[in-house]
Design brief:
192 residues, mainly alpha, Tetracycline Repressor, domain 2, 0% strand, TetR/AcrR family transcriptional regulator, Homeodomain-like_sf, DNA-binding
Amino acid sequence: MPTAPTGRRRRADAERSIARIVSAARECLSRDPNASIDDIAKAAGVGRMTLYGHFRNRKELVEAAMADALRAGEEVLSEVDLSGPAQDVLVRLLESSWSLVAESTALLTAAQGTLPAGRVRELHAGPAARLEELVRRGQDEGVFRTDMPVTWLVNVVQYVLHGAAEENRADRLKPEDTGRIVIATVRSILAA
């Protein structure tokens, strides 16, 4: 019996299993940042042994879930039209970013509670770089403030997005109002 097809089949099965586990982790951790390995394995339709065969510990699983959420978010953000005046681009970027942040707030909480702070920052490097480039462009256009470091302004925007998501989760902001409030807040923070 040839071994190559069996090996390929096992690898494909393993990849499907990993994808199910990561998807279940994203779903479970997005609802509850304290979701257990048992909860995630059950949601993925696998046993603990299978899960631990692919992920040595909760930290690896949380990182994989966070990386997958950021990859999916990158696909959405890469579709945002970045042409035109910086203020208009900011609105389009915030509209797209807001929904992504709202979906993954609890997952971020899980990551912050599990991964080192530096690793969470590394995982967010792509979205941060896009925003940093936009802020610099807005400064060059004279529409964004230049009296504070760009990295600080980018961090403040990220804090606003995450804070708004927390306000949503606590029912202190209505979901239908939050996008507008985020945009108004960030525009006032960045205004020259």
